[in-house]
Amino acid sequence: MQRYYQTDLKYVLIWEPRKLKFGNKSNRNTPTGQKIFIKQKCQYFNCYVSYDENFRNKDHKKFDAVIFKVNNIFNYTPKEINITRSKEQLYIFHSMESSELFPVCNSMFDNFFNLTWTYRLNSDIPHPFLNIYNENNEVIGPKRYINWTRKMTHNNKFKNKIRFKNKAIAWVVNKCKLKVKHKEFIDEFRNEIEGYNYTVDLYGPCGDKRCPGKSMQSCHNLIEKNYHFQLVVEETFAADYVTEKMVRVMNTLAIPILLGGSNYRRPRSYVCDLCAKLNERNSTKTYGRFRSWWNPDYKEHCKRLLG
User: Fold this and answer.
1) According to CATH, what is the number of the domain 160-259?
2) What is the rounded CA–CA span in Å between residue 86 and residue 177?
3) Percentage of the chain modeled with pLDDT above 70
4) Where is the Fucosyltransferase N-terminal domain positioned along the sequence (predicted)?
5) Distance between CA 178 and CA 19 in Å, rounded?
């Protein structure tokens, strides 16, 4: 991969509400400075990230881009975002949170953002939750279309692990509200499976079976040893959204059965993509109907959240 040695730094500000500047900074999960782009061996590494709005001689307009995290703007309006915007500056919306749980409600955010950096497939900078590797340890996804291996050969170690599986489906339920929320689906699913003399076993604090040693990891170990399939139910069905539940199951030898809003084939992306995007000739055109793009049902969700 060719690397580009630009001399001009692209300065990026991560905007925060003023109460966070002097209070809880636990939401600061984006690395600052330039080192992260060098460490990741990015093709473009001439970017510098800061949370300090006064970093550029107290002139907000000297930042090339400003990132707004959904957690920070959830209860704010653009009027409360007291920074000065230049004509060339890019405003970037960033979220790895579900659009159902964090809709953007204020109409002033329409025609506000130039770029999006989220888990959504159609983001300007897609940000995946996982990577898919082939048997040669090469990254082949996630992407829209993957040429899956039709016939795989398995070594004896793998065969020995699956040889003694004797149960069908397990579900680890650690939030009782999920069990209640999807009761109709689970009951119907169980009835269908029982017609083939199989069962759906529920583990965890909200299930009818207990994890060995009351450990969630022991539950997953038990399922990998005894079950062919593991049910994964996402908390929200936002488009393209997936959580660590699915990732955890994909790291075991239990085939996941998924109930969620994602097609689980996101394109690969890194923090490098942010810097690469800033080195393009980006248009300053804004998302006119941003709220609908982020959450097509935002009116319903905002009404519920805001009362």
Assistant:
1) 3.40.50
2) 46
3) 82
4) 10-129
5) 33
Do residues 159 and 191 touch, judged by C-beta distance below 8 A? no
pTM for the structure as a whole: 0.67
pLDDT in tens, 204-221: 777 778 887 777 778 888
For the chain, domain boundaries: 10-127+267-306, 160-259
DSSP the chain: ---B--SS-EEEEEE--HHHHSS--TT--S--BSHHHHHTT-SB--EEEES-TTTTTT-GGG-SEEEEEHHHHTT--GGG------TTPEEEEEE-S-TTTS----GGGTTT-SEEEES-TTSSS---S--EE-TTS-EEES-S-----SS----HHHHHHHHT--EEEEEE---HHHHHHTHHHHHHHHHHHHTTT--EEEESTTSSBPPGGG-HHHHHHHHHHHEEEEEEE-S---TT---HHHHHHHTTTSEEEEESS--S-PPP--THHHHHHHTS-------TTHHHHH-TTHHHHHHHHH-
Q: Strand 255-259 relative to strand 227-233: parallel, antiparallel, unpaired?
A: parallel
- Name residues whose C-beta falls within 8 Å of residue 176's C-beta, 6 or more positions apart in sequence: 205, 206
